[in-house]
Amino acid sequence: MQLGMIGLGRMGGNMAKRLEEHGHDVKTYDPGVDSTASSLEELRDQLDAPRTFWMMVPAGKITDETFEELLRVAESSDVIVDGGNSNFRDSQLRYAAAKERGVGFLDCGTSGGIWGREVGYCLMVGGDDAHVAQAEPVFVDLAPEDGYAHVGASGAGHFVKMVHNGIEYGLMQAYAEGFEVMRGSEFDLDLHEIAGIWRYGSVVRSWLLELLHAAFEHDGKDLEQIRGYVEDSGEGRWTIAEAIAEDVPVPVITAALFARFASRQEESFAAKVNAALRNQFGGHAVRAVEAARAQSQDPRA
Length: 301
Prior knowledge:
This protein is α/β, with parallel strands linked by helices. Helices cover 52% and strands 12% of the residues. It is built from 13 helices and 7 strands. Strands 2-1-3-4-5-6-7 form a 7-stranded mixed β-sheet, with helices on both faces. It is elongated.
C-alpha cells in the first residue's frame, strides 16, 4: 500500500526502508533529509486517496506543529498515525480534533529502536476499527510475527507504550545495580562473560541483557568511554503520574526514574546537607571537596 512517512530520523528512516523492502510505496517528508516531497502539501499530492500518513517525530512541540499542519492539508477519509512517544492524553485530543474534520487518527506505540528495521517493531495501536483496518497492511509488515495488536480505543496505544517504557526503566535499573554489585565485589569477575552466559537458560535473560553484553564487547568491561549520565524521555514520569491517579504503587519504576535524576548530578546538594547534619549533631567527620575529587579519580571509587 501507499504511505506518507513524516520524519526520517533513526526510527522513521529505518521504518520507511523496511516498508519499501516489503513492497510498499513510501513517500517521505522531512525538511532536514532528502525526501520525495518538499512540503506536507506535496506529500499529500503524491498519495492516492484515501491516504495514510505516519508521523515519526519527537513528542511535544514538533508533534503538535506537525499534526496541526497535517490536519490542515489532509482530506476526509485520510488517516494520520502518530508512531512517536506522545502522551496518551494528547493523542486523545488529537483524535477528537481529527474526527471533527472527518480524518482518522491512530496512536501507535512503537518499540524496537535502531534494530527494528532488521527484526521488526512491536506495535501497540489505539483508535477506531475502520482506521486500523486502513493502515493494517503497514502494521503487519513493520512488526515481526505476533508483534502487533490493536489494543483499544483512542489513546490506548500510547498508554500501553507508556507503561512499557516505565517497565523498561525498572528492568534497566535492576541490571545496572546488579552489575555494579558484581563489579565492586572481592572477586575478579568478567562482567562481559557473565552477561554472555546469562543470555542462555537464565531466568533474567532478555534482549536488554543481550544489548548489555554487546556494550561490554564494544566499550570494555568498565564501559570506560561512557559517562554515567542517564536522560529520560518522559514516559516514566507519565507512568508514575497515572499510577498515582489510580492509587497503584509503582516503587520500582519510581526508584528507577529517581536514579536517572541522580545520575545527572555532578555533586548532590542533598548529600552535602546529609553530611553537614551528621557533622553537626554527632561530630562525624566530613570530607573536604578536594579530597572527594581526588578519590573520584579512582575508577573503582
